[in-house]
Design a protein that fits this description.
With 397 residues, the chain is mainly α. It is built from 14 helices and no strands.
Length: 397
């Protein structure tokens, strides 16, 4: 086994699709406040899914985490800390989507997240000095630059869109709260904070080393070595989100919504065409203050599904990172670029760019083309490095 950048890129693309699809199940949620379904999806994404999948693929999971705590306690502490800070980015990221829509919100927030999450770790540990003196490293940095240019192009498309579409068209696309100014401010903050996830993965590397040893000793693929790291980082993220959701639940007195009381959905998970009042019958007083059982059950399913889909982005990210070779820091660029690509495609599918000019649509297309190009360039840089080091890259194992 060894690096295989081609397979690594495929894994990152699958993870990117999972992340970009995360918000789609939210559109099926009816008459629930944001803090309710956000907490449920967070519990599924950051607690349940990581534990179950790591327990399936990694033998002696509990002993691995215990050994890491006993021998490398800083790996646990800093992974939790960076995860908690990343959780702040996750909270505000939802607002960016609310104000900018799926396509533009992902592009701006994750573009900044790409830059910080890719470049700061190698700058911090000093490996950037080696990277800039090797052809393969420079090619990877070129890919990062292309990704950032693509984000700027998407930002220009967003400005153009704001000046072209009518309030009615925004409502039809489910973007009644669209605001480029507010969205950019929130997206910048969310992007910077979200980049701390990459720091958490870096801090938790000793946990992955222990897991790799255990996997190989039990004749398992080391492809799963980063799954225990994800558990710790996501614990930190859940803590932040749980605290904020609990504050909102108390402030808004929305705890009864877990049992079926109706609430208000500020993220406009569904279009503004009356769908938010599904199961509301003005002639039936019982629907005034209680969701129908099938609607309540569907809300739980959609929220949990969103969380599980979200987790799969890092499930595949952790696999892709093991295949990128020495310059695995570039995995963050590949992951973020693929998320933006698929988010842009979802935005087109959901007609978020309906009613815009040919110029705006051309900008969106150019941004998408540049993003795809950036993943190809970064992947080639990693392939070139593997060849230079004499590491076989043909096997997919």
């Amino acid at each position: 086994m060894g690096p295989n950048p081609f397979i690594g890129v495929i894994y990152h693309w699958v993870g990117g699709f999972a992340s970009a699809t995360n918000f789609i199940p939210f559109r099926g949620i009816k008459r629930w406040s944001w803090e309710i379904y956000w907490l449920i999806q967070g519990f599924a994404a950051w607690i349940v899914a990581p534990l179950i999948l790591a327990a399936i693929f990694v033998p002696h999971l509990a002993s691995i985490l215990h050994e890491a705590y006993a021998t490398k306690p800083e790996s646990i502490f800093y992974a939790l800390l960076w995860g908690a800070l990343w959780g702040v980015g996750g909270l505000t990221f939802g607002l960016a989507i609310r104000y900018l829509g799926i396509a533009l919100g992902y592009a701006i927030a994750l573009g900044l997240c790409t830059a910080f999450g890719t470049l700061i770790p190698p700058i911090y540990d000093g490996s950037i000095r080696t990277i800039v003196h090797e052809t393969s490293g420079l090619i990877i940095l070129l890919g990062v630059l292309i990704c950032l240019i693509a984000v700027a192009v998407n930002g220009a498309a967003g400005l153009s869109k704001e000046n072209e579409i009518t309030p009615e068209e925004k409502a039809e696309a489910g973007e009644t709260d669209y605001s480029f100014g507010k969205g950019i401010a929130v997206a910048i903050f969310a992007g910077i904070m979200s980049s701390f996830f990459a720091f958490g993965l870096k801090a938790g590397a000793p946990i992955g080393d222990i897991a790799k040893r255990e996997l190989l000793a039990n004749h398992h693929l080391d492809l799963w070595q980063n799954l225990p790291v994800l558990i710790v980082v996501l614990w930190g993220g859940f803590l932040t989100n749980f605290i904020w959701s609990a504050i909102l639940i108390i402030k808004n007195s929305s705890i009864k919504q877990f049992l079926g009381a109706p609430g208000h959905n500020p993220m406009r998970a569904t279009h503004a065409s009356g769908d938010t009042l599904v199961d509301f019958d003005p002639l039936d007083a019982s629907t005034y203050d209680q969701l129908a059982p099938k609607t309540l059950a569907a809300n739980y399913i959609f929220a949990a599904l969103a969380g599980v889909v979200w987790y799969f982005q890092f499930f595949f990210y952790s696999m892709g990172q093991t295949k990128m070779g020495k310059y695995d820091f570039s995995s963050w660029t590949l992951h973020m670029a693929s998320i933006i690509i698929f988010a842009t495609l979802w935005g087109l599918f959901l007609k978020e760019w309906h009613g815009t000019s040919r110029r705006t649509k051309l900008l969106v297309s150019c941004g998408l083309f540049l993003l795809i190009g950036s993943t190809v360039v970064v992947g080639y840089g990693n392939y070139l490095k593997a060849v230079q080091d004499g590491i076989p890259t043909v096997s997919a194992q």
